[in-house]
Design brief:
It is a single chain. It contains one helix and five strands. 26% of the residues lie in helices and 38% in strands. It folds into two domains: 34 residues; 87 residues, OB fold (Dihydrolipoamide Acetyltransferase, E2P). The chain has a five-stranded antiparallel beta sheet, covered by helices on one side.
Amino acid sequence: MENNGKSIIVVLAAFFSIVYAIYYIRNEEIELLEKPSNYTIGKIDDSYAVIGYFDYNYVYVYKNKSYTKTGSSSKKQEINKRFLVKFSKENPENSELILTLPICDTTLVAPQLGWKEIPKHLICKD
């Protein structure tokens, strides 16, 4: 019985350590996105169902380097649809696809360094 008590403590400690690590990493990403950010154009590369929601992969380019990230949504995203991406200048891999800001111009290429502010003239107006 004594071993069971120690096992439970070890399992609980591991569980809380994992939860804390996830919380810390997520907060760090949020803080980086709150610092000066740039905007660029991202394209949905893949969209697939997960239990209760949909994940999607999106691709964007910054300084001639391509980045692929994953996001989540309550609905399946249309492949090749383009949206604005907010990313950290300090760590360009830290980004967020903004599904509420679709880009209508299918030929437009973003500047290498992106935009410092949201380019409102590029957003679809429904």
